[in-house]
Design a protein that fits this description.
With 257 residues, this protein is of the alpha/beta class. It has helices at 18-29, 41-49, 66-78, 101-129, 150-170, 188-201, 205-213, 224-235, and strands at 9-13, 33-38, 54-58, 83-86, 132-137, 175-182, 246-249. Helices cover 46% and strands 15% of the residues.
Length: 257
Protein backbone atom coordinates (compact mmCIF):
# COMPACT_ATOMS: atom_id res chain seq x y z
CA UNK A 1 0.00 0.00 0.00
CA UNK A 2 1.28 3.45 -0.90
CA UNK A 3 1.01 5.65 2.18
CA UNK A 4 1.90 8.94 0.51
CA UNK A 5 3.94 9.90 3.57
CA UNK A 6 7.29 10.32 1.85
CA UNK A 7 8.44 13.88 2.36
CA UNK A 8 5.58 14.77 4.71
CA UNK A 9 6.51 16.64 7.88
CA UNK A 10 5.40 14.93 11.07
CA UNK A 11 5.43 16.02 14.72
CA UNK A 12 5.29 13.36 17.42
CA UNK A 13 5.39 14.63 21.02
CA UNK A 14 6.04 12.19 23.86
CA UNK A 15 8.29 10.13 21.61
CA UNK A 16 11.24 9.23 23.83
CA UNK A 17 9.86 5.71 24.45
CA UNK A 18 6.85 3.43 24.24
CA UNK A 19 3.97 4.17 21.88
CA UNK A 20 5.27 7.60 20.90
CA UNK A 21 8.68 6.31 19.86
CA UNK A 22 7.12 3.41 17.95
CA UNK A 23 4.91 5.86 16.03
CA UNK A 24 7.88 8.05 15.16
CA UNK A 25 9.83 5.01 13.94
CA UNK A 26 6.93 3.77 11.84
CA UNK A 27 6.35 7.12 10.14
CA UNK A 28 10.07 7.57 9.54
CA UNK A 29 10.13 4.16 7.84
CA UNK A 30 7.55 5.49 5.37
CA UNK A 31 9.87 8.31 4.35
CA UNK A 32 8.40 11.11 6.46
CA UNK A 33 10.48 13.87 8.04
CA UNK A 34 9.88 13.28 11.74
CA UNK A 35 10.24 15.63 14.68
CA UNK A 36 10.48 13.76 17.97
CA UNK A 37 9.88 15.74 21.15
CA UNK A 38 10.01 14.96 24.86
CA UNK A 39 11.42 16.19 28.14
CA UNK A 40 14.30 13.73 27.75
CA UNK A 41 16.07 15.69 25.06
CA UNK A 42 19.16 13.51 24.91
CA UNK A 43 17.02 10.41 24.33
CA UNK A 44 14.97 11.85 21.47
CA UNK A 45 18.09 13.23 19.83
CA UNK A 46 19.70 9.78 19.99
CA UNK A 47 16.59 8.12 18.58
CA UNK A 48 16.25 10.71 15.82
CA UNK A 49 19.84 10.07 14.77
CA UNK A 50 18.87 6.47 13.95
CA UNK A 51 16.16 7.58 11.48
CA UNK A 52 16.64 8.66 7.84
CA UNK A 53 15.25 12.20 8.30
CA UNK A 54 14.46 13.23 11.87
CA UNK A 55 15.33 15.65 14.64
CA UNK A 56 14.85 15.40 18.38
CA UNK A 57 13.70 18.41 20.41
CA UNK A 58 13.64 18.82 24.18
CA UNK A 59 10.28 20.18 25.31
CA UNK A 60 8.14 20.01 28.43
CA UNK A 61 4.57 20.26 27.19
CA UNK A 62 3.24 21.09 30.64
CA UNK A 63 4.62 24.62 30.18
CA UNK A 64 2.02 27.13 28.99
CA UNK A 65 3.77 28.27 25.82
CA UNK A 66 5.31 24.90 24.92
CA UNK A 67 2.73 23.81 22.28
CA UNK A 68 3.19 26.83 20.00
CA UNK A 69 6.94 26.95 20.67
CA UNK A 70 7.26 23.26 19.77
CA UNK A 71 5.35 23.71 16.52
CA UNK A 72 7.55 26.70 15.64
CA UNK A 73 10.71 24.69 16.29
CA UNK A 74 9.41 21.72 14.29
CA UNK A 75 8.55 23.94 11.33
CA UNK A 76 11.99 25.53 11.47
CA UNK A 77 13.47 22.04 11.13
CA UNK A 78 11.44 20.77 8.17
CA UNK A 79 8.67 23.18 7.20
CA UNK A 80 4.89 23.23 7.78
CA UNK A 81 3.51 20.29 9.74
CA UNK A 82 1.45 17.86 7.67
CA UNK A 83 0.83 15.23 10.35
CA UNK A 84 0.34 15.99 14.04
CA UNK A 85 0.28 13.12 16.50
CA UNK A 86 -1.25 14.08 19.84
CA UNK A 87 0.48 12.03 22.49
CA UNK A 88 1.47 12.54 26.11
CA UNK A 89 1.85 10.67 29.34
CA UNK A 90 -1.13 10.30 31.62
CA UNK A 91 -1.98 11.62 35.07
CA UNK A 92 -1.44 9.45 38.17
CA UNK A 93 -3.92 6.73 39.14
CA UNK A 94 -6.75 7.60 41.50
CA UNK A 95 -10.47 7.31 42.08
CA UNK A 96 -13.14 9.77 40.97
CA UNK A 97 -14.39 10.27 44.54
CA UNK A 98 -10.92 11.26 45.76
CA UNK A 99 -9.95 13.56 42.86
CA UNK A 100 -9.15 17.08 44.01
CA UNK A 101 -9.85 20.29 42.11
CA UNK A 102 -6.14 20.76 41.51
CA UNK A 103 -5.70 17.23 40.14
CA UNK A 104 -8.62 17.63 37.74
CA UNK A 105 -7.30 20.97 36.48
CA UNK A 106 -3.83 19.52 35.91
CA UNK A 107 -5.25 16.49 34.08
CA UNK A 108 -7.40 18.63 31.78
CA UNK A 109 -4.46 20.93 31.11
CA UNK A 110 -2.24 17.99 30.21
CA UNK A 111 -4.68 15.93 28.16
CA UNK A 112 -6.95 18.55 26.61
CA UNK A 113 -5.76 22.16 26.79
CA UNK A 114 -2.17 21.63 25.63
CA UNK A 115 -3.27 19.33 22.82
CA UNK A 116 -5.86 21.86 21.65
CA UNK A 117 -3.11 24.49 21.58
CA UNK A 118 -0.93 22.31 19.35
CA UNK A 119 -3.83 21.72 16.99
CA UNK A 120 -4.52 25.45 16.85
CA UNK A 121 -0.90 26.05 15.86
CA UNK A 122 -0.88 23.62 12.90
CA UNK A 123 -4.48 23.75 11.71
CA UNK A 124 -4.42 27.01 9.68
CA UNK A 125 -1.59 25.66 7.53
CA UNK A 126 -3.29 22.32 7.00
CA UNK A 127 -6.52 24.02 5.95
CA UNK A 128 -4.65 26.34 3.62
CA UNK A 129 -2.90 23.42 1.91
CA UNK A 130 -6.10 21.30 1.89
CA UNK A 131 -4.22 18.36 3.39
CA UNK A 132 -3.54 17.40 6.97
CA UNK A 133 -3.72 14.58 9.46
CA UNK A 134 -4.35 14.87 13.19
CA UNK A 135 -4.15 11.56 15.02
CA UNK A 136 -4.54 11.39 18.79
CA UNK A 137 -3.37 8.61 21.06
CA UNK A 138 -6.35 8.09 23.34
CA UNK A 139 -7.29 5.29 25.71
CA UNK A 140 -9.81 2.49 25.87
CA UNK A 141 -11.02 4.36 28.96
CA UNK A 142 -12.81 6.79 26.63
CA UNK A 143 -15.28 4.06 25.70
CA UNK A 144 -15.08 1.91 28.83
CA UNK A 145 -13.81 3.92 31.82
CA UNK A 146 -10.89 2.26 33.56
CA UNK A 147 -11.12 1.65 37.32
CA UNK A 148 -8.57 3.64 39.28
CA UNK A 149 -7.77 5.98 36.37
CA UNK A 150 -10.44 8.63 36.90
CA UNK A 151 -8.25 11.58 35.91
CA UNK A 152 -7.20 9.93 32.67
CA UNK A 153 -10.79 8.96 31.89
CA UNK A 154 -11.92 12.57 32.35
CA UNK A 155 -9.14 14.27 30.43
CA UNK A 156 -9.12 11.92 27.47
CA UNK A 157 -12.91 11.99 27.18
CA UNK A 158 -12.70 15.78 26.95
CA UNK A 159 -10.12 15.49 24.17
CA UNK A 160 -12.36 13.02 22.35
CA UNK A 161 -15.26 15.48 22.42
CA UNK A 162 -13.10 18.28 21.08
CA UNK A 163 -11.63 16.19 18.26
CA UNK A 164 -14.97 14.73 17.18
CA UNK A 165 -16.37 18.25 16.88
CA UNK A 166 -13.28 19.46 15.02
CA UNK A 167 -13.37 16.55 12.57
CA UNK A 168 -16.75 17.62 11.20
CA UNK A 169 -15.63 21.23 10.89
CA UNK A 170 -12.56 20.52 8.72
CA UNK A 171 -13.53 17.35 6.84
CA UNK A 172 -14.34 19.27 3.67
CA UNK A 173 -10.90 20.86 3.62
CA UNK A 174 -8.81 17.72 3.29
CA UNK A 175 -7.95 17.50 7.00
CA UNK A 176 -8.80 14.30 8.87
CA UNK A 177 -9.01 13.98 12.65
CA UNK A 178 -9.01 10.60 14.37
CA UNK A 179 -8.17 8.84 17.62
CA UNK A 180 -6.55 5.47 18.21
CA UNK A 181 -7.45 3.87 21.51
CA UNK A 182 -4.85 1.55 23.06
CA UNK A 183 -5.80 -1.21 25.41
CA UNK A 184 -3.01 -2.97 27.26
CA UNK A 185 0.07 -2.10 25.19
CA UNK A 186 3.33 -3.36 26.69
CA UNK A 187 4.95 -0.06 27.70
CA UNK A 188 6.50 1.45 30.83
CA UNK A 189 3.28 3.42 31.40
CA UNK A 190 1.19 0.24 31.50
CA UNK A 191 3.80 -1.34 33.75
CA UNK A 192 3.46 1.53 36.22
CA UNK A 193 -0.35 1.23 36.13
CA UNK A 194 -0.05 -2.49 36.85
CA UNK A 195 2.30 -1.66 39.71
CA UNK A 196 -0.20 0.82 41.18
CA UNK A 197 -2.97 -1.79 40.89
CA UNK A 198 -0.78 -4.32 42.65
CA UNK A 199 -0.15 -1.94 45.52
CA UNK A 200 -3.83 -1.03 45.76
CA UNK A 201 -5.07 -4.64 45.77
CA UNK A 202 -2.28 -6.45 47.61
CA UNK A 203 -1.33 -8.59 44.62
CA UNK A 204 2.04 -8.88 42.90
CA UNK A 205 2.62 -7.00 39.62
CA UNK A 206 2.99 -10.37 37.92
CA UNK A 207 -0.43 -11.47 39.16
CA UNK A 208 -1.97 -8.19 38.04
CA UNK A 209 -0.53 -8.73 34.57
CA UNK A 210 -1.75 -12.33 34.45
CA UNK A 211 -5.23 -11.31 35.54
CA UNK A 212 -5.25 -8.50 32.99
CA UNK A 213 -4.22 -10.79 30.15
CA UNK A 214 -7.10 -13.09 31.07
CA UNK A 215 -9.52 -10.29 30.11
CA UNK A 216 -7.99 -9.81 26.63
CA UNK A 217 -9.35 -12.13 23.90
CA UNK A 218 -6.01 -11.97 22.06
CA UNK A 219 -4.39 -13.45 25.18
CA UNK A 220 -1.51 -11.00 25.47
CA UNK A 221 -0.52 -7.36 25.78
CA UNK A 222 -0.09 -5.51 22.50
CA UNK A 223 3.23 -4.41 21.07
CA UNK A 224 3.94 -0.70 20.51
CA UNK A 225 4.71 -1.32 16.83
CA UNK A 226 1.27 -2.88 16.35
CA UNK A 227 -0.34 0.27 17.66
CA UNK A 228 1.98 2.46 15.58
CA UNK A 229 0.89 0.67 12.40
CA UNK A 230 -2.71 1.82 12.96
CA UNK A 231 -1.59 5.40 13.51
CA UNK A 232 0.53 5.24 10.35
CA UNK A 233 -2.45 4.12 8.29
CA UNK A 234 -4.60 6.97 9.59
CA UNK A 235 -1.81 9.42 8.79
CA UNK A 236 -1.55 8.12 5.25
CA UNK A 237 -3.18 9.23 2.02
CA UNK A 238 -4.97 5.88 1.95
CA UNK A 239 -7.09 6.97 4.94
CA UNK A 240 -8.40 10.15 3.32
CA UNK A 241 -12.06 9.11 3.84
CA UNK A 242 -11.65 8.14 7.50
CA UNK A 243 -12.31 10.98 9.93
CA UNK A 244 -13.99 11.60 13.27
CA UNK A 245 -13.35 8.00 14.29
CA UNK A 246 -12.15 6.24 17.42
CA UNK A 247 -10.31 3.09 16.37
CA UNK A 248 -9.45 0.57 19.06
CA UNK A 249 -6.17 -1.32 19.07
CA UNK A 250 -6.77 -3.47 22.13
CA UNK A 251 -6.81 -7.14 21.23
CA UNK A 252 -10.58 -7.22 21.74
CA UNK A 253 -10.44 -5.88 25.31
CA UNK A 254 -13.42 -3.52 25.01
CA UNK A 255 -16.55 -5.54 24.44
CA UNK A 256 -18.70 -2.73 23.03
CA UNK A 257 -19.61 -2.77 19.35
Amino acid sequence: METGLRGKNVLVPGSSSGIGLAIAQSLAAEGANVVLAARRGEVVREEAAKMPSAVGLEFDLSEETAPSALVDAAEQAFGPIDVLVLNSGGPPPGTAAEASDEQVIIALHQLLVQHQRMVAAVLPGMRGRHWGRIVAVGSSGIQQPLPGLALSNMGRAGLAGYLKTLAAEVAGEGVTVNMVLPGRIDTDRVGSIDGAAAKRTGRSPEQVRTDSIATIPAGRYGRPEEFAAVVTFLASSAASYVTGEQIRCDGGLVRAY
